[in-house]
Design brief:
Length: 118
């Protein structure tokens, strides 16, 4: 088991220009393994991860930062993704054998731009 602390693991951080966006991606993972296992999967792929609370994790690379939250039904996530890379985020979740659904919203959060499901 990896030691993921609030200080974070080594790894790339989201690009500064993407930090100017508000949250634009929201999703869920059904029948998810423990959140620690999911966060570790991201770290093993070269992403940065940190504990954002006692139970939640934040994972990121140059083009995305999402918060992972455990619920009784699975995992919820939200954050910022480069809109051109939504399919890449889906590919990462698919590579982890996770069943997911996610939505990409406009920057003002008034228009659903895309939906993606595995």
């Amino acid at each position: 088991m990896l030691d993921i602390t609030s200080g974070g693991t080594p790894g790339p951080q989201i690009a500064d220009e993407l930090l100017l966006l508000d949250n634009n991606v929201y999703g869920s993972v059904a029948d998810a393994p423990p959140l620690q296992d999911i966060a570790e999967s991201f770290v093993l792929k070269g992403w940065r991860a940190r504990r954002s609370s006692w139970t939640d994790f934040e994972v990121e690379c140059e083009w995305v930062r999402i918060e992972l939250q455990q619920t009784s039904d699975g995992v919820l996530f939200s954050g910022i993704v480069d809109p051109a890379r939504l399919d890449d985020l889906g590919a990462v979740l698919t590579a982890f054998d996770l069943r997911f659904s996610m939505e990409l919203w406009s920057t003002d959060r008034t228009e659903l731009l895309r939906e993606l499901r595995s």
